[in-house]
Amino acid sequence: MIREGGFTRKSKAVNEIPSASLADMAFLLLIFFMVSTTFRKEQRREVVIPEAEATQKLDAPRKDVLHLYVERDGAIFINDQKIPPERVSDVVAPLYEETDRKLVTVLRGDRDVPYRFIDAVQKELQEASAVRVTFYTNLEQRIKRERR
């Protein structure tokens, strides 16, 4: 038989927010954002790279490299953004200063681009004081070696 008073409450209400599961919630949010985030990939440019007898590998960090594409029709793309030829220096100059003058501009010109377009880009890069410019080329021997 149950006597008077019955059951007694052992715990009392607490005026605090429980923090035991906060780490679990933070971990779940972290996983959610990692899974749902998409990273933008560079768009491939249809540029036929010219051949060279000798090349050197570029040893600059990726953050200090600016890819500048020149297509056959003279269209200029800087990191996937089409830029008018007369604005190349306006775009490159601030980027060059941001990297503390370590920026390396990789000029990827199509093999069939008329030289006047390459010359115009070089003059714009000189105007932007971007002195570290390389030309991207293919080395035929390297291509054959990789296929083996």
Task: Explain what this protein looks like in three dimensions.
The protein has 148 residues and is an alpha/beta fold. It has a domain of 97 residues: Nucleotidyltransferase, domain 5, CATH 3.30.420.270. The chain contains four helices and seven strands, in the order αββββαβαββα. A five-stranded mixed sheet has the order 4-3-2-5-6, with helices on one face. A two-stranded parallel sheet has the order 1-7. Strand 5, helix 3 and strand 6 form a beta-alpha-beta unit. The protein is elongated and about 105 Å long.
Topology:
Elements lengths: L21 H15 L14 E2 L12 E6 L5 E3 L2 E3 L4 H11 L5 E6 L5 H13 L5 E3 L2 E2 H8 L1
CATH hierarchy, class of the domain at 51-147: Alpha Beta
CATH topology descriptor of the domain at 51-147:
Nucleotidyltransferase, domain 5
CATH architecture of the domain at 51-147: 2-Layer Sandwich
Going across the biggest sheet, name each strand in turn: 4-3-2-5-6
Descriptors:
148 residues; alpha/beta; Nucleotidyltransferase, domain 5; five-stranded mixed beta sheet; two-stranded parallel ribbon; 7 strands
Summarize the structure.
This protein has 148 residues and is of the alpha/beta class.
